[in-house]
Specification:
Layout lengths: L1 H50 L10 H45 L1
Helix pairs in contact: 1-2
């Protein structure tokens, strides 16, 4: 019976880990794509304001590109930090499950 409880604990953990891994993958992918895109948008906004040119290709206002790029950088960085915090949470959860299963085996 104890081996079955240990098996259920580890199986439940691995299901939660798979879900957390998928969420972390999406968060890190958004951060990896969002930060360079935000920097590029910010640079285009600054260049449009400095040279007093509206970009015909994007048809965005320079201030929108400037502040939109900054907000995209900060939002993407926040998503990356959320992914890191989720990784810390799942690793602490693993240690808690491992200690519990070790106590069950010793009992």
């Amino acid at each position: 019976m104890i081996k079955f409880k240990v098996f259920l604990n580890y199986t439940g953990y691995w299901i939660v880990f798979a879900f957390c891994f998928a969420v972390m993958f999406v968060l890190f992918l958004a951060a990896a794509a969002g930060i360079p895109l935000g920097v590029m948008l910010f640079i285009f906004g600054v260049a449009s304001l400095l040279f007093n040119e509206n970009l015909i290709i994007t048809e965005l206002a320079p201030t929108f590109m400037l502040f939109g790029g900054l907000s995209l950088i900060f939002i993407a960085a926040a998503l990356g930090l959320i992914g890191v915090k989720l990784g810390f949470w799942i690793s602490r959860r693993y240690l808690r499950i491992k200690r519990r299963c070790d106590r069950l085996r010793d009992w």
